[in-house]
Amino acid sequence: MSTDVHAPASRGRRLPPKDAAPKGRHEEGTVLVTGGAGFIGSHLVDALLARGYRVRVVDDFSTGHWENLADAEATGRVEVWEGSVEDPALLRVAMKGVRWVFHLAARIFVAESVDDPVAYHRTNVLGTVQVLQAAREAGVERVVLASSAAVYGVPERLPLGEDAPLRPLSPYAAEKIANEMDARVFTHLGLPVVALRLFNVYGPRQRPDNPYAAVIVAFLSRWLQGRAPVVYGDGSQTRDFVYVGDVVQAFLRAAQAPQAPGGVFNVCRGRAVSLLDLLAAMRPLFPDHVPEPEFAPPRPGDIPHSIGDPTRAREVLGFQAQTSLEQGLRETLTWMQRHLPLSRER
Ligand SMILES: NC(=O)c1ccc[n+]([C@@H]2O[C@H](COP(=O)([O-])OP(=O)(O)OC[C@H]3O[C@@H](n4cnc5c(N)ncnc54)[C@H](O)[C@@H]3O)[C@@H](O)[C@H]2O)c1
Questions:
Q1: Nearest to residue 335, comparing CAs of 249, 243, 209, 206?
Q2: Number of domains in the chain
């Protein structure tokens, strides 16, 4: 497969970048977001544009969506390069003159990684090394990459500090550990890299329409359709849900905090929310009657509890999640009602 490395993708070309920084605060420079058409990446792109940066996106649109970039394209300060992080020639061109790289492109479905570990390795490990090497060659100031709480596996004790043992249970988790190791190595080689271990991120633009949908959007979409949410197990399992707007703040801080390079940081709220708590928090958002949840046998490999310790991120990055679960759920539901065709079935 050849890639046109001379011009951004046709959608991006329709709106050539203009010098149209918003009034007020203006930051210098061009930044690259890999995976910028995805759920988290597109929010980061919007936040960077709002601060006055020019933004380049490299995304192969395997799970990303052009609609996620609609606001970004309207600024005229984003260039979208449709292609893969597995393509070093594309990366070399996209990296020219870039100050920071935010590397979020990845294959993200844990169960799928079990079925196709080689393809996952190619994107998540080889792709990441290629991003780091291209950044190093281009003299990028700093790279921030997305790791995952999946690296911890089944925890021995909670909350999970960054020094807890790493017990990957899937190729996806092992690949994120490899990314963190490469982050340290490249920092040692002179390219400052920061790795963020994201916990359960949720918010607008997260899609319920795939077999591995995250639990919040899966539950909300069932109730929006007038159907019963399906709880695997008894619903007592807990997660540390963190709103996407907060996660974006963590990325921005990681790009600037002086002591961050070479480090890994949990990005979480540090609050345990069970699936039953979650359903209780969602119910008041639905004025009409909604069906009671259905309970199904636990899924093999499900982790019973996962809670992060946010202390290191607070102390080193100055990051603290601000969004309450109720507020985050409201924002997510509002977006789903406006943007997703969810037919109501009874
Ligand atoms: N959502 C979460 O709860 C969560 C938790 C932990 C870690 N993460 C990590 O955060 C990052 C973003 O995840 P997300 O939830 O926004 O998922 P997403 O699928 O919406 O975003 C990933 C983006 O990467 C793109 N992509 C995939 N393969 C690519 C390739 N070879 N080249 C270029 N682009 C490619 C996809 O098209 C998509 O736009 C990922 O690295 C993921 O592993 C997410």
A1: 206
A2: 1
